[in-house]
What does this fold into?
Amino acid sequence: MRGNLQAYKRVSVDSQLTSASPHRVIQMLMAGAIERLIQGKAAMEQGSIAIKGERLGKALDIIISLRGCLSFDDGGEIASNLDSLYLYMIEKITAANQKNEVAHVDEVIDMLRELKSAWDQIPPEHHNITQMEY
It folds into this structure.
């Protein structure tokens, strides 16, 4: 049953991604990173080392992907600031995983929530930019 649910979720996400605007893809990535961090924190608190590593690793992958979307030519100082922020998040998640520090995970969750909140406030007329870079 659990395998069927996972497969359904994958198909649902895949279908959302194929029709999503670049803006929506970034929203989904940020939400996914937050979700994985929360799951990683829960696993950390429960002592589930393998699950902690998997979830925090997935969050890292998402943040690395977000970082890869940055366009320094078009984004200028904003892209540069986001790059620094993403690097900081990567360092904090890595430290959290190595040292089992819940506070580091909480810090990154808070930063991502704030960033996502700002991203969510971008007016709809700017959602369908032709490139996925920001």
